Amino acid sequence: MKSIIIIGGGLAGLVGANYMVEKGLSVTLVEKKRYPFHRVCGEYISNETIPFLKARGLFPQEFNPPKINRFQLTSLNGRVALLPLDLGGFGISRYSFDHFLYKKALDKGVNFVLDTEVESVLFKDESFFVRTGQTELSADLVIGSFGKRSRLDLSMKRSFVQKRSPYAGVKYHIRTDQPADLISLHNFKDGYCGISQIEDQKFTLCYLTHRINLKSHGSIKAMEEAVLFKNPYLKSIFRNSEFLFDKPEVINEISFATKTPIENHVLMTGDAAGMITPLCGNGMAMAIHSAKILSELVIEYSAGKITREHLEIQYSQKWNSLFAIRLWTGRQIQRLFGDEWTSNLAINLMRKSQPLAELIIKKTHGQPF
Ligand SMILES: Cc1cc2nc3c(=O)[nH]c(=O)nc-3n(C[C@H](O)[C@H](O)[C@H](O)COP(=O)(O)OP(=O)(O)OC[C@H]3O[C@@H](n4cnc5c(N)ncnc54)[C@H](O)[C@@H]3O)c2cc1C
To answer: Cβ(70) to ligand 1 under 6 A?
Structure first.
């Protein structure tokens, strides 16, 4: 039986761990933090994931996640476009969803090493050596699901970490007055903010902003008042909602640069393989999907049906055919909404042309798997 180490227990790592342990593989998952914990994420999950999650018993039905099938887009000058979401999605906090997947994996026998950060990975003589601050673990295969940016990217000398990235993400949970089936996206200068419902009638308010906004206003609160409040919809939501966190969750250095799905024989899934812009709303679906295709190949490798070389070639090919164009499209759509003038124009065009609006929305969702 092959031994697998998964580095990072977000959606990609937890879904892969659940899948592979069920098929009899020996799985150890090393996670920097301890569950449950909050993450910066819009918490809208595309329905393309539902067939797979249900088939593997991983759909979080016990939280009664709201079904979301309408999309509202607002521009800085107060224009609104309201559109149907054909495929749609559901809402659940990462706090609850990741904890739910963690407990499932624990019950099935995944060995968790929590509160532990991996510092480096070495591949030598067909084995991997994974070093943490305390110890060294070894395995036949290592899966990198350590998210958008990690100290491991630095130790692996991945090219995207050599450049600074200008984006920051901020998240709150709030109680507000918005229909449960609606996801709204509000533009502001050099950023956009999504709001949609999650479990327990709470809502996630999450935005992406250029660090220039933060730098020029000194604090998050001052920036929100000076920049986000220029959109009248956002001003009203901030003024009339109950904010449930003492302080927001914040992350910096969010990069959408191209990455590779394999690095020094480490097989990357989720954001570690490539991050889609949040505007295209589907990083979580891609994390789950990439964990699925990788797990299937690892199971074949473990059964002796394919060699390591074939595993790497096939994973790389599948990953590129499923996600490379989607990531590129996400970057182009984000460019359209990154600027005040172009976002006003895009919203006007989407209001006037239903086919164009439908095309853009279609590009942000994948096929059910
Ligand atoms: C502002 C914003 C809004 C978003 N909104 C949405 C949305 O509404 N819908 C959607 O589908 N996607 C959204 N996304 C994208 C989505 O959050 C990610 O695509 C998704 O979380 C990727 O999952 P992952 O498992 O790859 O990584 P993560 O969920 O980030 O998990 C990575 C894990 O690895 C751990 N880790 C990192 N380094 C190490 C290490 N060295 N050793 C051990 N552990 C380590 C981390 O602690 C973390 O738990 C958004 C992203 C941003 C930034």
So the answer is: no
| CA 77 to ligand 1 center in whole angstroms | 32
Query: Would you write out the chain's pLDDT as a tens digit for each of its 369 residues?
Result: 789 999 999 999 999 999 999 999 999 999 999 999 999 999 999 999 999 999 999 999 999 999 999 999 898 878 898 989 989 999 999 999 999 999 999 999 999 999 999 999 999 999 999 999 989 999 999 999 999 999 999 999 999 998 888 899 999 999 999 999 999 999 998 899 999 999 999 999 999 999 889 999 999 999 999 999 999 999 999 999 999 999 999 999 998 888 999 999 999 999 999 988 887 768 999 999 999 999 999 999 999 999 999 999 999 999 999 998 888 888 887 777 666 777 777 777 777 777 877 777 777 778 899
The verdict on the CB of residue 32 being under 6 Å from ligand 1 is yes
Closest by Cα among 235, 243, 174, 167 to 203: 174
Burial (CB count <10 Å: 0-12, 13-18, 19+), residue 124: exposed
Is any ligand 1 atom within 6 A of the Cβ of residue 330?
no
**Cα(356) to centroid(ligand 1), Å:** 30
CA distance 227 to 170: 14
Question: What domain range includes position 41?
Answer: 3-164+254-364
Ligand 1 close to Cβ of residue 289 (< 6 A):
no
Q: How many domains does the chain have?
A: 1
CATH number of residue 66's parent domain: 3.50.50.60
